[in-house]
Design brief:
Radius of gyration: 19 Å
Number of strands: 9
CATH architecture of the largest domain: 3-Layer(aba) Sandwich
Structural class: alpha/beta
Strand order of the largest sheet: 1-4-3-2-5-6
CATH superfamily of the largest domain: HUPs
Distance between the termini: 45 Å
Largest sheet: 6 strands, parallel
Bound molecules: adenosine monophosphate
CATH topology of the largest domain: Rossmann fold
CATH class of the largest domain: Alpha Beta
Length: about 280
């Protein structure tokens, strides 16, 4: 595995790889790697000749008041994981290389970035779209791998790729969960023991919604209120939103349809967690 510290070098390397007609799979991350990330890397490994992983805690996607400095960082451990998983190139850029003095250009995917997590984290998705656009321009991968866990992010990036004609295929990899169902997230490391055991209620609420739908319930507000009742039993959990939306525009639906998304966000103590499920019936 080779380490790449700067953009210019990465550009040169990926250009050479493309000349050799090798397929490049790219997995962007913020580090603190876990089995969720591994699943993306493994899929990239299976489907490409060359796998590039980036680790960059992107300051542009943290909103005021969110603690960029406290985001978990385990670089040594992450490097070991990447080696084991057969990553070819690990890109570890510096903040000043990505956003040099005078940096002024941002990508905003309108409407989709303003709802759900975007409503509580204004500017967050602008930061995400900007860094992914930059990395796609530099690496020019054949395929970009994203996780279903961050479904709004995956929808926004897919929209950006389409709207701005990036020549890349986007693949969304299923959410990896812990044994009790909690979606793996780097932020889980910030949960106390008590918060961690309570956090599973988010997954349970999604399962409850799936059961209600499979029993014939189609009324979104009834499903959401049952989910709220369940979550609110746990006093340490503060719901940010629960919504049932369509996958294209993220519009809130009154009636559940096949392939609609149930999305939620909640704070447990100081930690904000998100999760979602795709309603699967026809
Ligand atoms: P992050 O490091 O949190 O920015 O995540 C990097 C990528 O890993 C994103 O595409 C995430 O959606 C994906 N990811 C994070 N957690 C999971 C998970 N539990 N299952 C699948 N993908 C995940």
């Amino acid at each position: 595995m080779k380490f790449i510290p700067d953009l210019a070098k990465l550009s040169l390397i990926t250009e050479k790889i493309r000349q050799l007609k090798k397929r490049i799979g790219f997995v962007p991350t913020m580090g603190a790697l876990h089995a969720g990330h591994f699943s993306l890397i493994n899929q990239a490994r299976k489907e490409n000749d060359v796998v590039v992983v980036s680790i960059f805690v992107n300051p542009a996607q943290f909103t005021p008041g969110e603690d960029f400095k406290k985001y978990p960082r385990y670089l040594k451990r992450d490097i070991g994981f990447c080696r084991k998983l057969g990553v070819d190139f690990l890109f570890l850029p510096d903040k000043s290389d990505i956003y040099p003095p005078g940096y002024s250009t941002f990508v905003n995917v309108e409407v989709l970035s303003d709802v759900l997590c975007g409503a509580s984290r204004p500017g967050h998705f602008r930061g995400v779209a900007t860094i992914v656009a930059k990395l796609l321009n530099i690496i020019q991968p054949d395929t970009l791998y994203l996780g279903q866990k961050d479904v709004q992010q995956a929808i926004i990036i897919s929209r950006m790729v389409k709207d701005l004609n990036f020549p890349v295929k986007v693949k969304v990899v299923p959410t990896v969960r812990q044994e009790d169902g909690l979606a793996l997230s780097s932020r889980n490391a910030n949960l106390s023991k008590n918060e961690r055991s309570g956090a599973v209620v988010l997954f349970k609420a999604l399962r409850l919604a799936e059961t209600l739908v499979s029993n014939g319930q189609r009324n979104a507000s009834r499903i959401i209120s049952r989910m709220k009742q369940l979550i609110e039993k746990n006093k340490q959990v503060k719901i940010d939103y629960i919504a049932i939306v369509d996958q294209e525009r993220l519009r809130r639906l009154k009636k559940v349809k096949p392939r609609s998304l149930i999305v939620l966000a909640a704070k447990i103590g100081k930690t904000r967690l998100i999760d979602n499920t795709i309603i699967d019936y026809s």
